[in-house]
Amino acid sequence: MPDLNTSFYQIFPELTLKQFSCFEMYSMGLSVKQIANKKAISEMAVNKHLKVARDKFDCQTSSELRTIYLCRVLRTISVNIPYATNLV
């Protein structure tokens, strides 16, 4: 099983597991080369997975791709964590 959070994988149904794995690592700041080394695949394969993700999310840049990841993850986390009402 790849190194990833499967609950976050579930909020990206547009992507295959391989695409999500590269997408998640890239969104966490790993370079294409680092992802390729960690997953034991070519940099070309990583770039292909990231391009498919960009196309599926209609992103022009990698920054937009990272933003989509962070927005969905933060939305999921905020829905699942009750707000503290007694903090001052």
CATH architecture: Orthogonal Bundle
Count of discrete domains: 1
Mean pLDDT: 87
Cα end-to-end separation: 43 Å
Annotation, overall tally of beta strands: 0
Major sheet: none
Tell me the name of the CATH class.
Mainly Alpha
**Total number of helices:** 5
According to CATH, the homologous superfamily is Winged helix-like DNA-binding domain superfamily/Winged helix DNA-binding domain
Within the CATH hierarchy, at the fold level, what is the topology?
Answer: Arc Repressor Mutant, subunit A
Strand content: under 5%
State the shape.
Answer: globular
What is the string of SSEs from the N terminus onward?
A: HHHHH
**Poorly predicted runs:** none
Share in helix? 55-70%
Radius of gyration using CA atoms only: 15 Å
Give me the secondary-structure category: mainly alpha
Protein name: HTH luxR-type domain-containing protein
Domain HTH luxR-type: 12-69
GO molecular function: DNA binding
Pfam family, one: GerE
